[in-house]
Amino acid sequence: METQEETELILESNEKLRDAYTQGDFASVPNGMTKYFRTSLLWQIWRFIGINFRMTLMILKSHH
């Protein structure tokens, strides 16, 4: 028969938990240029055209 071992949950103090996270553990905040590229309609249209053009070329090459 298998025996089940009981484990005790030990909670760390808040200071110890808070200190466990360093600056590199969090996502970076986007700068102004990144926000512009994410929200600019002209940039999104340009990217859409570029990606579709590259995809079309790839498809045409595969049907060679």
Please provide a written account of the structure.
With 64 residues, this protein is an all-alpha fold. The chain has a domain at 29-63. The protein is built from three helices and no strands. The protein is elongated.
The counted number of beta strands is 0
Main beta-sheet annotation: none
Strand content: under 5%
Mean pLDDT: 84
Radius of gyration, CA atoms, in whole angstroms: 26 Å
Q: What class do helices, strands and sheet pairing give?
A: mainly alpha
Count of alpha/pi helices: 3
List keywords for this structure.
56% helix, 64 residues, single chain, mainly alpha
Outline:
The protein is mostly helical. It is 56% helix and 0% strand. It starts with 13 loop residues before the first helix and ends with a helix.
